Amino acid sequence: MMPIHPSVWISYFLAVLTGFAFGFVLERGGFGSTRKLAAQFYLTDMRVLKVMFAAIVTAMLGLTLLRAAGLFDWNELYVNPTYLPPQIVGGLIFGIGFVVGGYCPGTSVVAAATGRVDAFAFLVGMGGGVLGFSAVLPKIQGFATSGGGQRRFLYDWLHVSYGVATILVTLMALGMFVGAEFIERKLAGKSAGKKPAEPASGSTTEAQSA
Question: Residue 124 has what pLDDT?
Answer without folding.
Answer: 93
